């Protein structure tokens, strides 16, 4: 039996209406509902909701910065740097430096000196710290706040608008389902106070979290969410469920989404699939628009650079590490923060765009003829396949191991995968194996000397 005091907690859900209460009970107590393990809520009072609406309206009217290296900085950057220099211990003394000479910061600095990066003047009574995985970098706790969680909504709306979608869910509707697929994850129901208390559910599609195997499809069909968000692992699981419901859009975050899987999802659900480039430290950075050939930046107050190993901004079209300044989280102002991801940045008639986006440090792989190949060549070779995830490793003897997570049987897929890699690497020995890790894995690794260049 649901603990209604917890479900309707005025601390978590201030101002909850009668129709909001009814929707929460429907989400949680439906006969096919999963085992919800937690309680959560927006924690926004009336004044904070109006402030959020004002912020969101301002963002909707502003474009992302149209700035490239060597051009005059946007007007807001100078004051932002000054506030960081005077109010954030980690940035003390930086106000007098030209922007191009500001040192870069990285995930290691946040992992080891997090308190020094939180502004001294901000209240800490409602501070939230989210833990992030360390499988692709240093384990990290990200300081946040209920208003920050609310502001993700505004930037997702900006992304949806690029595909002609304006969310319509309202009273009695389920606006979004956040779908995971893990042995165990945080699951709850809530409402969106900025969209007439439409419903939100964070669910785990792992079969062990449901009473019966068929309940997953039955529950999603009954809730009929306007949007479904997940990562390629959980979205691929949706393909196996036989859903009748068709959301207006799917949002993919957290991991790289292959072009093949996106095409299969779009065909199955007859809706766009948004491939979001998003980080826990920054929030949604950009969204891929395939017709434009790259990722379109989303945040009006996030300056994006592409830099070399020494932290120097690179000219348009040159490939380097993505560095960001600004963001919408006041509790974690970022000043030339190295994301660990790589791309080039160009100006198009539609504005700035990130092209060739790849996560984490580049890795080179050696072919049978001794030539080196960038990992982006591997990404392109794998793009036609509807893979949930893949990871490529080169052993010390130069042989390759490709591990894949796919809903197509591996024996039927292996020959085509091997042929796709052989087109780049020649007759290098290639082993194909299943990828069964429950969490994120590093996509590209090598035991060969010279495969990776340290910063």
Automatic annotation (TrEMBL):
Transmembrane segments: none annotated. Residues 132-326 form the AMP-dependent synthetase/ligase domain. SUPFAM superfamilies: Acetyl-CoA synthetase-like. InterPro entries: AMP-dep_synth/lig_dom, ANL_N_sf, CapK_Type1_Caps_Biosynth. This is AMP-binding protein.
């Amino acid at each position: 039996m649901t603990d209604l005091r917890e479900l309707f907690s005025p601390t978590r859900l201030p101002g909850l209406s009668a129709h909001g209460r009814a929707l929460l009970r429907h989400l949680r107590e439906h006969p096919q509902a999963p085992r919800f393990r937690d309680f959560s809520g927006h924690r926004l009072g009336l004044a904070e909701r109006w402030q959020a609406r004002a912020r969101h309206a301002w963002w909707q009217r502003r474009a992302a910065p149209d700035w490239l290296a060597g051009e005059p900085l946007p007007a807001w950057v100078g004051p932002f740097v000054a506030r960081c220099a005077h109010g954030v211990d980690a940035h003390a003394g930086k106000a007098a430096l030209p922007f191009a000479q500001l040192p870069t910061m990285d995930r290691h600095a946040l992992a080891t000196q997090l308190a020094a990066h939180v502004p001294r003047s901000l209240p800490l009574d409602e501070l939230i710290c989210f833990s992030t995985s360390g499988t692709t970098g240093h384990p990290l706790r990200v300081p946040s706040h209920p208003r920050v969680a609310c502001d993700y909504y505004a930037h997702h709306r900006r992304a949806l608008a690029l595909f002609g979608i304006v969310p319509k869910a309202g009273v009695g509707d389920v606006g979004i389902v956040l779908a995971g697929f893990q042995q165990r994850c945080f699951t709850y129901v809530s409402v969106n106070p900025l969209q007439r208390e439409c419903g939100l559910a964070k669910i785990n599609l792992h079969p062990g979290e449901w009473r019966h195997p068929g309940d997953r499809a039955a529950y999603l069909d009954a809730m009929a969410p306007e949007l479904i968000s997940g990562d390629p692992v959980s979205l691929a699981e949706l393909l196996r469920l036989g859903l009748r419901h068709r959301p207006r859009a799917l949002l993919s975050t957290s991991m790289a989404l292959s072009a093949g899987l996106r095409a299969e999802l779009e065909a199955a659900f007859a809706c766009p699939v948004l491939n979001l480039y998003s980080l826990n430290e920054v929030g949604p950075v950009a969204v891929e628009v395939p017709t434009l050939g790259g990722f379109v930046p989303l945040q009006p107050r996030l300056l994006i650079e592409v830099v070399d190993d020494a932290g120097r901004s690179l000219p348009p079209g040159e490939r380097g590490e993505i560095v960001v300044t600004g963001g919408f989280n006041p509790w974690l102002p970022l000043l030339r923060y190295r994301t660990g991801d790589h791309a080039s940045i160009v100006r198009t008639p539609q504005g700035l765009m990130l092209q060739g986006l790849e996560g984490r440090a580049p890795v080179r792989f050696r072919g049978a003829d001794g030539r080196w190949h960038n990992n982006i060549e591997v990404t392109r070779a794998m793009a036609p396949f509807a893979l949930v995830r893949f990871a490529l490793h080169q052993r010390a003897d130069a042989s390759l191991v490709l591990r894949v997570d796919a809903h197509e049987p591996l024996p039927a897929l292996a020959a085509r995968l091997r042929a796709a890699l052989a087109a780049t690497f020649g007759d290098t020995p290639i082993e194909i194996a299943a990828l069964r890790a429950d969490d994120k894995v590093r996509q590209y690794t090598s035991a060969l000397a010279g495969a990776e260049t340290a910063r």
